[in-house]
Amino acid sequence: MAPAQELPPETEAEPLGDAADKSRVTVVGSGNWGSVAAKLIASNTLRLPSFHDEVRMWVFEEILPSGEKLTDVINSTNENVKYLPGIKLGNNVVADPDLENAVKDANMLVFVTPHQFMEGICKRLVGKVKEGMEAISLIKGMEVKMEGPCMISSLISEQLGINCCVLMGANIANEIAVEKFSEATVGYRENRDIAEKWVQLFSTSYFMVSPVQDVEGVELCGTLKNVVAIAAGFVDGLEMGNNTKAAIMRIGLREMKAFSKLLFPSVKDTTFFESCGVADLITTCLGGRNRKVAEAFAKNGGKRSFDELEAEMLQGQKLQGVSTARELYEVLSHRGWLELFPLFATVHEISTGRLPPSAIVEYNR
Length: 365
Ligand SMILES: NC(=O)C1=CN([C@@H]2O[C@H](COP(=O)(O)OP(=O)(O)OC[C@H]3O[C@@H](n4cnc5c(N)ncnc54)[C@H](O)[C@@H]3O)[C@@H](O)[C@H]2O)C=CC1
Ligand SMILES: O=C(CO)COP(=O)(O)O
What we know:
With 365 residues, this protein is an alpha/beta fold. Helix content is 45%, strand content 14%. The chain has 2 domains: 19-213, Rossmann fold, CATH 3.40.50; 217-361, N-(1-d-carboxylethyl)-l-norvaline Dehydrogenase, domain 2. It is built from 14 helices and 10 strands. Bound molecules: 1,4-dihydronicotinamide adenine dinucleotide and 1,3-dihydroxyacetonephosphate (13P). 1,3-dihydroxyacetonephosphate binds at residues 140, 170-172, 226, 229, 280, 283-284, 288-290, 320.
């Protein structure tokens, strides 16, 4: 299909004032998706007059086998050689290993790290972000606190006192990196103008972004589908075939919707038909990292742990599905909902070795 997309119009006139009128964007995170997000954004900040050209990207510093710092290599080669090798990010992307320095001049922050690091990152940023800052989270995951589950966008909003939208979708990063057409959904709370600004910042001829007024629905879709992808990987590892996998995806989608609506009755049915819903579920169950590692786990009969397989197969990239299944299980146990969500519960029980991988089709007991 030829992507018949028109880029968002460059409606704003060239600012009359000085460069201070322009928005400055910082990407917090530089993994596989973080690097692709920086590439997308950097192509647009060059094109759109209301943004500064430069895009800062915070890098969790590491030393490469060559002895060089990852940040130095990104800045000299314009490539994230560890997490997105072979792709030029754009000369206006500047890697910065100092988190506080990376955000200090920004007024738009894009959060895109594995979810388990976000609590620590937010703590470091308290009092360090500009007034009126706008944020967006591309992070698929949640935190579980004493009071209950906390979505990552809420963590950001509450800890930093800023508004936070979300962007989720059927977005396997390596495919978008080579500019294959895909779609995404921006979830926003009230301010449609802010949502439009994020749409403008991310949209390209091959990346079509649509806004939806349903932050929780969009974010829960992105978060929960990773658990279903683990189940799909078990099915693949056991060579159960396409019908079984389709059944797992359908049951998973039903649980995703039921859980989201129990937690947030405001979640809209229509959100599940956006890119963040059924489309992301399909792509992740076909081609994602959660599926791939879960397949290896099942092939090994559950004898090698997810941690071990993740380290061996993903070279520093992180799975979100296994920890999300654990977090979900805590919520389900605490609220007495385990029986309502047998697929979610079984994924956790298999991942922790309490049940064999074959239990993935026996849970409907
Ligand atoms: N890769 C993909 O295709 C997609 C990923 N996502 C989501 O984006 C989020 C980020 O994922 P990726 O960019 O793919 O990351 P990744 O899994 O490729 O890379 C891991 C990142 O974590 C960093 N890291 C390691 N230890 C850390 C620490 N202690 N503190 C802070 N950072 C640390 C690494 O430097 C690296 O940047 C996740 O929530 C993921 O679910 C969403 C859509 C697509
Ligand atoms: O979220 C993703 C695609 O939209 C990527 O999923 P994985 O983390 O399983 O690769």
